[in-house]
Specification:
2 copies of one chain form a homodimer.
Chain A (H helix, E strand, L loop, with lengths): L1 E2 L1 H8 L3 H8 L3 H8 L7 H10 L4 H4 E2 L3
Antiparallel strand pairs in A: 1-2
Chain A binds a DNA duplex through helix 3.
DNA sequence: CCACAATGTAAAGCTCCTTTTACATCACCC
DNA sequence: GGGTGATGTAAAAGGAGCTTTACATTGTGG
């Protein structure tokens, strides 16, 4: 499962730290998600997608 | 976070067991999600939504 | 009444998500 | 060269997701 968080965050001009603060998670969590080290929880995935004005499916791509 | 899994499953005429088998999880997992005892993981949420032909946001509602 | 399918629930156990703390690198600026 | 911001990474700890096994309830059909 990969995702577009890094690109979307870059386009928004935010640091990992700043994005984490907006979403209520640590910068390490943002970093891990961007690198695909693990998938976010469902509520965090929804918050992330909503923050960037996308659907969950647009931001997170299942590799099937 | 509540969801429409029970209604969608009912409309599809499937038991919790049958839905679990289609999605590769146990019936207890389906049961717990329907009752809101916990949220599914992101990959399972995406599989559930896709199975019912909906987006994740249509099936899972954040209570904000 | 006796199966049987469907559902609810609980415990134990494993893996995954997230946090905090901490250190390390790299680039940029003064 | 020293400070600062952004990023990568690691360890420990706690909580959440999911499994298996097991038992209990309910409704339905023979």
């Amino acid at each position: 499962m990969d995702n577009d968080v890094r690109e979307l965050r870059g386009a928004a001009g935010l640091s990992q730290q700043a994005l984490g603060e907006r979403l209520g998670v640590s910068r390490q969590t943002i970093n891990a998600i961007e690198q695909g080290r693990y998938d976010p929880s469902l509520p965090l995935a929804i918050r992330l997608a909503r923050f960037f004005g996308r659907t969950v499916e647009e931001v997170f791509h299942c590799d099937d």
